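Page 42, continued from yesterday. The earlier attempt failed because a stray header line got pasted into the input along with the sequence. Redoing it now with the clean sequence only.
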Amino acid sequence: MYNNPEEPISEYEVTINKLSDQITELFSKIHFYQALVAEKDHQIAQLAKENQKLLVKIQELMHKSTPTPPPSQESYKPPPPVELSYTPPSFPPKQQSFTPPSLSEKLEDSHSISDDSRINKRVCPNCGAMGFAIREIDDKSNVISYTPRRIYAKKKSCTKCRYEW
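This time it went through. Structure tokens are written below.
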């Protein structure tokens, strides 16, 4: 099997040489990273000093309360007056006959009023959900009428956050 006794020794020497090269390479990396860590520590120390100086300045500025002088009357300019234009509703003269508003005008007026009131009624005070997220349910603790049948007060419930009012 082993004809030449020098052959196993040379294999061991080759692997030892490779491993020693790897060791020296790793040691050089260690020294590089140690130098890098030292440089970063130095930067951290400098930033910590600068941070302390800034904190001291902040505290000085907070403690130094310089009251702002009231504006002098010369530099004070009142805001321009707001012009409110109000025109009183014009009523038809008594000699003319009153004509009822057209159907479209009635629908527009009732539509805008009902939208506003519906929006205001269906808003959850807790989460702000609107519309169909609000349910009206009977409040069995508050009876309005017993005759001809029991009529309960209504309370609203939010289906999103389960808040009742």
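Notes: Residues 6-63 form the longest helix (58 residues).
Reminder to self: strip header lines before submitting.
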